């Protein structure tokens, strides 16, 4: 910790431990993480390229998908490169302000991802429950406003965190028992009264997950009711089939969150590496699996990918 300047109460840098208790396996653990990150980069960049190149995909559903792909790219790239540097090169040092920036991007884009999934549920609700009004409701300006609202909400909720952490004196050393700068992992190193940080972090997480998930569930209740009222089984199957990809994205995002939350409460005595591996799974799994879900289940994207391969082999 710096002592030359008495006005500096925070360390010049932190040291990321990695996965406590599994340091001897870092190189082996990094292999599936690197593979998943590579898939996430390739998959999401391919999605963005296809949506940008094909004018037929410049529709609300695909514009929201482009937002989701961008968020997944930022989320994984915020943490994985540094995490792999820790695993491969033992480059554990991260500056204090670099840590705050990583934390801000990590939590902000997690909140944005939840907002975009909610927007996609609204898109499916309008498409199935009010199909005649779809083009008049989900206009370009409204989609822009939804995107800006998602960014504004995330930035507003996360901006206080760096300032709250900057005011603490860190007397418990610079070692962060994590692979990246997660809010509560940094708070544990701080001295003084950290109750407000604890309450604020839990309140924001509960507010985002509960509120967004509640509206997503409500959207699907209305969607299910509308689908069941359709006359033919084929029409019901076709209508609900358009929601399969979005449901898969919701499950890939929220399932790790729920599992991690349950583990923190039910298995408090579990080894720290269990919780950290779950946290990494939450960061890596959605960016890796979402492009696969949409690529397999969305006919327009699948056809575009096949046409690219046909052109290449021609």
UniProtKB/TrEMBL annotation:
Q: Which PROSITE patterns match?
A: G_PROTEIN_RECEP_F1_1, G_PROTEIN_RECEP_F1_2
Does the record carry Cell membrane as a key word? yes
Location of the G-protein coupled receptors family 1 profile domain: 43-294
List, in alphabetical order, the Gene Ontology terms for molecular function in this entry: G protein-coupled receptor activity; olfactory receptor activity
Which is a Pfam family this sequence falls into?
A: 7tm_4
Question: Where, subcellularly, is it found?
Answer: Cell membrane; Membrane
The superkingdom listed in its UniProt entry is Eukaryota
Q: Keywords for this entry?
A: Cell membrane, G-protein coupled receptor, Membrane, Olfaction, Receptor, Sensory transduction, Transducer, Transmembrane, Transmembrane helix
* One cellular component term from this protein's GO annotations in UniProt: plasma membrane
Please indicate if the UniProt record lists Magnesium as a keyword: no
The residues that cross the membrane are: 25-50, 62-88, 94-122, 134-155, 199-223, 235-254, 274-296
Chief site of localization: membrane
Q: Which membrane topology describes this protein?
A: Multi-pass membrane protein
In this entry, which stretches build a coiled coil?
Answer: none
Q: Which family does it belong to?
A: Belongs to the G-protein coupled receptor 1 family.
The UniProt function text for this chain reads: Odorant receptor.
Identification of the protein by name = Olfactory receptor
- Protein's organism: Mustela putorius furo
